Amino acid sequence: MKKLRVYVLRSRHRPNRDKRVTTHLLLAARAFGADGAFYSGQRDQKIERSVEKVSESWGGSFEAEYVQDWKKAVKKWKEDGGEVVHLTVYGLPIHDVIEQVIASPKDKLVLVGGAKMPGAAYELADWNVSVTSQPHSEVSALSIFLHELFGGRELSKTFEDARIRVVPQAKGKKIIRVES
Ligand SMILES: C[S@@+](CC[C@H](N)C(=O)[O-])C[C@H]1O[C@@H](n2cnc3c(N)ncnc32)[C@H](O)[C@@H]1O
Question: Does residue 84 line the site of ligand 1, with CB under 6 A?
Answer without folding.
Answer: no
